[in-house]
Specification:
330 residues, alpha/beta, Rossmann fold, 45% helix, 18% strand, globular
């Protein structure tokens, strides 16, 4: 009888422990931060792909429950924001260039929801934070590569829209090139689209015909033209060297993980507030980096660029920020 009692007690304790384990797992699952993202373009587009990648990484770690909508038209953006807020998403991430007023209006209506939006403007309390890909530092470094390696002293540059977020990267690239080669000239054009590879490709052809032997590929389509005409290219935001072997000299890479992780930590910890998260795209926070194809870049050029990279990381060199629209040299 005593043995039966002991066995019964052990079974009860085991059952209680099992229930406690299930409960703790349930609590852990419930503690995942619910995050929704809204994208105006496909997740394959380079800028958006970096946000999507960072959020997927957080989801794979078990930090967040992640859902997203892509190809959302500007006219539908406010509606989608409201739907996600109504669903109880704790953090909503996206880009609101071109619809700032509407997005900020939504944030005011859902003050218990955290918003982190790519924006040209500042944060607004209590819950609307902003970010951007501040990769001007690695862009400067890739400019050093281009300026050192151009043989015609003509570099072509094609951007999407002439907004501050694009302008500052292009200016940083131009500064890097000029610092190592004062004779370099630039041909600059904007295609007024975030995704129009054929248009970007045609613009690149025209620049190559005008003497450009290195192309700054801020948009898709430029590197395709470089391959067809046998010139080199510089990548932006993502590393496409594998898609264009023998063509991409270097790329300025954006890593959104530092920004996402900081925002998620603040939301889960109950400390999220309106702030500018732009600094987390700086190289010092791991938000930006440069990749270099050393099979294409001479050793002395690679060495000089890496030395400047160390100076940036050590705080001994500051890359200038210029948001003005860049223009072609006469």
């Amino acid at each position: 009888m005593l043995l039966e009692r002991k066995m019964g007690r052990r079974l009860m304790l085991a059952a209680a422990a099992s229930i406690g384990l299930v409960a703790s797992v349930g609590i852990a699952a419930a503690e995942k931060t619910k995050v929704a993202a809204i994208y105006t373009l496909p997740v394959e587009q380079q800028w958006i792909s970096r946000i999507h990648k960072a959020l997927n990484t957080a989801a794979e770690r078990g930090d967040i429950d992640y859902t997203f909508s892509e190809n959302v038209a500007n006219t539908d953006y406010e509606r989608v924001m409201r739907e996600y807020a109504e669903q109880g998403q704790q953090l909503i991430i996206g880009e609101v260039f071109g619809l700032e007023r509407a997005a900020r209006k939504v944030a005011k209506d859902y003050t218990d929801t955290a918003f982190l939006m790519g924006s040209s403007f500042g944060p607004v309390g209590p819950n609307f934070s902003v970010f951007d890909n501040w990769i001007h530092e690695p862009s400067y470094l890739t400019g050093m590569v281009a300026g050192s390696m151009t043989e015609t002293n003509v570099i072509g540059m094609i951007g999407g829209y002439a907004i501050p977020e694009v302008n500052r990267l292009m200016h940083a690239f131009m500064d890097g090139a000029r610092d190592v080669n004062p004779d370099v000239k630039f041909i600059v054009n904007f295609i007024d689209s975030w995704y129009d590879p054929p248009k970007a490709k045609e613009s690149a052809f025209a620049m190559i015909d005008a003497g450009a032997d290195i192309m700054y590929a801020e948009r898709f389509g430029v590197s395709d033209a470089a391959v067809e005409r046998g010139v080199k290219a510089i990548g932006n935001v993502i590393d496409t060297a594998g898609d264009y072997p023998g063509t991409i000299l270097a790329s300025a890479i954006w890593h959104m993980e530092a920004t996402v992780d900081k925002a998620v930590a603040h939301v889960s910890g109950g400390s999220f507030e309106a702030a500018d998260y732009g600094q987390y795209s700086f190289m010092a926070f791991g938000g930006g980096s440069m990749v270099l194809d050393e099979s294409l870049v001479p050793a002395d050029v690679a060495s000089a660029v890496k030395a400047r990279e160390v100076e940036i990381l050590d705080g001994l060199f500051r890359v200038n920020v210029n948001d003005a629209r860049p223009s072609s040299d006469n």
